[in-house]
Design a protein that fits this description.
heterodimer; A: mainly beta; 11 strands; globular; B: mainly beta; 7-stranded mixed β-sheet; about 0% helix; about 50% strand
């Protein structure tokens, strides 16, 4: 099983600031089959990034993904009020599929 | 526009079987992976399993002995059965499309309680 560890657990930032979220895998994620999802309270998750760096349809370009192998990053270039949420990384390269424990981006 | 909608009982008694259905509109379940994921209250996401091409399945080893995912192409639905439930199975259950979940249902809260 690939264990995904996200850091930090909570990120306290102000609107307009840059957010950098990390996801580290316990072993290499083949073909960069790594996705990022955003979840707001009371809502289902929403796909942001797949293939480590490809934005899903309709996702603003302030969201970007990077990384390969075991280290991946989600960057939000300038936080908008609607970006404060919990973010999960997820690997789909091997079974069982696994998620990170989440990073909460909160308003400072 | 593709939509997924979970349905089923919101309350299940301990030791009984949880049964949920995901109805897909705007797409055929004959393609893609179709998955079930759950989220206990206040916690993170847990993959339950998937079905693809309406026949092949893959389950989380932690749940494998209790889980069955099946598909009904005539109704364009796929279903989850989880047997011998306990309070630890209380969660919001989501269905999702694709290998990287590019579309999610809204989720359904299932509480296990007598």
């Amino acid at each position: 099983e690939i264990v995904l560890t996200q850091s930090p657990g909570t990120l306290s930032l102000s609107p307009g600031e840059r957010a950098t979220l990390s996801c580290r895998a316990s072993r290499s994620v083949n073909s960069n089959y790594l996705a990022w999802h955003q979840q707001k309270p009371g809502q289902a998750p929403r796909l942001l990034i797949y293939g480590a760096s490809t934005r899903a349809s309709g996702i603003p370009d302030r969201f970007s993904g990077s990384g390969s192998g075991t280290d991946f990053t989600l960057t939000i270039s300038r936080l908008e009020p609607e970006d404060f949420a919990v973010y999960y990384c997820h690997q789909y390269s091997s079974s069982p599929r696994t998620f990170g424990q989440g990073t909460k981006v909160e308003i400072k | 526009q593709v939509q997924l909608q979970e349905s089923g009982p919101g309350l299940v008694k301990p030791s009984e079987t949880l049964s949920l259905t995901c109805t897909v509109s705007g797409d055929s379940i004959g393609s893609y992976y179709w998955s079930w994921i759950r989220q206990p209250p206040g916690k993170g996401l847990e993959w339950i399993g998937y079905i693809y091409y309406t026949a092949s399945t893959n389950y989380n080893p932690l749940l494998q002995s209790r889980v069955t995912i099946s598909a009904d192409t005539s109704k364009n639905q796929f279903s989850l059965k989880l047997s011998s439930v306990t309070a630890a199975d209380t969660a919001v259950y989501y269905c999702a499309r694709g290998d990287y979940y590019h579309l999610w249902g809204q989720g359904i809260l299932v509480t296990v309680s007598s």
